[in-house]
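pipeline/complex-builder :: batch 7 item 3
reading input block
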Amino acid sequence: MAVYVFAGKGGVGKTTSSAAFAVLLAERLGRRVLVASIDPAHNLGDVLGVELGGEPRRVWRNLYAAEVDYEAVVERYMSGLTEKLSYLYRHLKAFNLEGTLRVMRYAPGVEENAVLEELLRMLRSGGGFDDIVIDPPPTGMLLRILSLPLSALQWVRGLMRLRMEILKRRRMIVNATGEEIRVRLGGEEYVLPSSPGDDPVYRELAGLEETYREAIERLVKGSTIILVINPETLPLLEAERTYRFLKSIGARVGGVVVNKYREEGRRVLEEARSFFKEEPFATIPLLPREPRGIDRLREVAARLEALLP
Amino acid sequence: MRLPAPLNRFLEHLRLALAGQAVEYIEAELRQLETVFATLVLGSLAGMPTPLSGAAARLAPYMLPEIMAMLEEAGRLDDLIGEIGGLFEPT
């Protein structure tokens, strides 16, 4: 299964390009394709001219589409956590659990983590699709999602090493005293685990390590990223920076789309061609009418053939 | 060679005393490590930048003992000399 991610500044035409490319894959290569939006400000349904929800819906021939309910994903991620925390931390009345959870919902990294896990869930299940085309949030958020597993993996591995040191010392105490280490918290007795297999914290860390490793394999290195720009200087400069960053984290860039091209943008177009000379290049002209609906998207799709695998 | 019974008892007590003291040292080290671990994971709640609140959120439900250790440790910070003194028992 191939995964394509269309990256670019807000408003450059990521949704139109990704929808048109999905149409191209479905029509020209006869692939079973899912185009999924994970942008909090969805407009994939508007572009395709259909109402979309979180589950893939067939929109044309072998083309399916979905708009991932971003808020619901984050809420689901937090509600599982709230349940566990409410039970385990019931003794800590002064801890103000509800207040803490409200803060954690908006803590840096929580949204990215929730979206990353939702993306992985989608890629793991596959849904019988040959290709998945992702219409992501604008560049800043996308880069945070893509770079998250790389930094997170180092952090989690550091914590795993520290946790092993803790477990090693607990084992030493158990061996020397011949008794388990017990603590009383809130009237209940807890036996502290002394081996990685019994320790839920170590198991959770190992699960996180696996998640981040999988994210690097499937999403960072396993997907093809296509940059979308307009023929203007600022989007081009941002695309150049994004390109360098993606290369630095080992991501695969599979092409560049210059959308809404008009004659005044010729100089920027030439600069873009020169900078991205090693990548497949496609140009979509500024259209008199917005390309909404499958028929119009097929016209746009014809401009994207250079990006086909 | 068989040692006289009183000497044997003395050596056994000595072994137990040394083992007990070693366990105390390890326990003190363990408390410190658990505090460092909890601070790294949940540091954002105390104003320390934590790279991954999302991952911290996944670990938090299992870390009640560590949090309690951290709170106890914080209480003892006022009397670090007392803590070290208790550990090494200088007389």
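note: DSSP finds ten helices and ten strands in chain A.
queue -> next item
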